[in-house]
Amino acid sequence: MNDLLELMKERRSIRKYLEKQIPREALERIVEAGLYAPNAGGGQRSRIVAVRNPVLSEKLGRLNLAHFNRATLAGSFVSAEQPSVIDDPSMKSGFYGAPTVCAIFGPTDFLYSIPDAFCCAENMVLEAHALGIASCIIARGEETFDNEFGKALLRQWQIPDTMIARCFVLLGYCSGKYPAVKPRKAGRSLIVEETREHD
Ligand SMILES: Cc1cc2nc3c(=O)[nH]c(=O)nc-3n(C[C@H](O)[C@H](O)[C@H](O)COP(=O)(O)O)c2cc1C
C-alpha cells in the first residue's frame, strides 16, 4: 500500500493476536520508525524497549492493569470487534497476548515527555500497518513499572532513574477478521481560508 492517508484510515487497534511472532527485521523497522518521530526541540529523548518474550509480556500486561480502576469508566465503550479491557472486565492482561510489546520511555521531568512518546507510538503503528503487522497503543506505562518487579527490569534494561514509561505499542498478527475503516464523527475540523476580513 503506497498511499499514506489510506494506510492511516485502514490502521485499526488490534486486541486479538495470533501466537505467531513477528519477524525481527520488521520489528527493527518499526522501532526505527519510532526513533524518527517528531520530538520536542529535536531532543530525541524517548527510548524504546521491545520485549519478545511472551511470558514476560504477560506478566507486564497484568501489572499494566493492576491498579486500573475500570469503575471510573463505567458506561464507556471501545469496540465490539476488538473488545478492550474497558469492554471486558474479565481480561487480566492489558497487552491482549501480543507476541511483541514495545515500552516507550521518556524523561520523568520534561514538559513534552508524554507527547514525544505518543509521537513515537504513532509512527510505530503506522510503519507496522505498512508492513502488514497489527498493533495497538496502550496507556498506563507509568504504573506498569511502579513495583519491585518493574523497577528491577528497568535496571536490567539500563533505563536511568530520570526516565519513566509513558506508553506501549503492541505488535503481532491479527487473529480473525481485521476490522473495517471506522467512520469519523462530523464537525471535528475547520479550514480557515485566507480573507481580508481581519486586516
Ligand atoms: C493515548 C492513547 C491511549 C490508548 N490506550 C489504550 C489502552 O490502554 N488499551 C487499549 O486497548 N487501547 C488503547 N488505545 C487505543 C484506542 O482505544 C484506539 O485507538 C481507539 O479505540 C480508536 O480505535 P482505532 O485505533 O482502531 O481507530 C489508546 C490509544 C491512544 C491514542
What does this structure look like?
By secondary structure, the chain is α+β, with helices and mostly antiparallel strands. It has one domain (4-172): NADH Oxidase (3-Layer(aba) Sandwich). The protein is 32% helix and 14% strand. It contains 6 helices and 4 strands; from the N terminus they run ααβαβαβααβ. The longest helix has 18 residues, at 113-130. The termini are far apart. The mean pLDDT is 95. Flavin mononucleotide is lined by residues 12-13, 15, 78, 84, 118, 136-140, 182.
List its salient traits.
single chain, 199 residues, alpha+beta, NADH Oxidase, 4-stranded antiparallel beta sheet, 6 helices, binds flavin mononucleotide
Mean pLDDT: 95
Structural class from helices and strands? alpha+beta
- Bin the helical content: 25-40%
From the 3D structure, determine the CATH topology: NADH Oxidase
Name the CATH homologous superfamily: NADH Oxidase
The end-to-end span amounts to 44 Å
Count of runs of 4 or more consecutive helical residues: 6
- Which residue ranges are poorly predicted, with pLDDT under 50 across at least 5 consecutive positions? none
| Bound heterogens, unique | flavin mononucleotide
Short description, anyone?
The chain is an alpha+beta fold and 199 residues long. The protein is 32% helix and 14% strand.
Helix-strand layout with pairing:
Blueprint: H1 4-10, H2 24-35, E1 47-51, H3 54-66, E2 100-107, H4 113-130, E3 134-138, H5 141-144, H6 148-156, E4 163-172
Antiparallel strand pairs: 1-2, 2-4, 3-4
Helix pairs in contact: 2-4
The protein binds flavin mononucleotide.
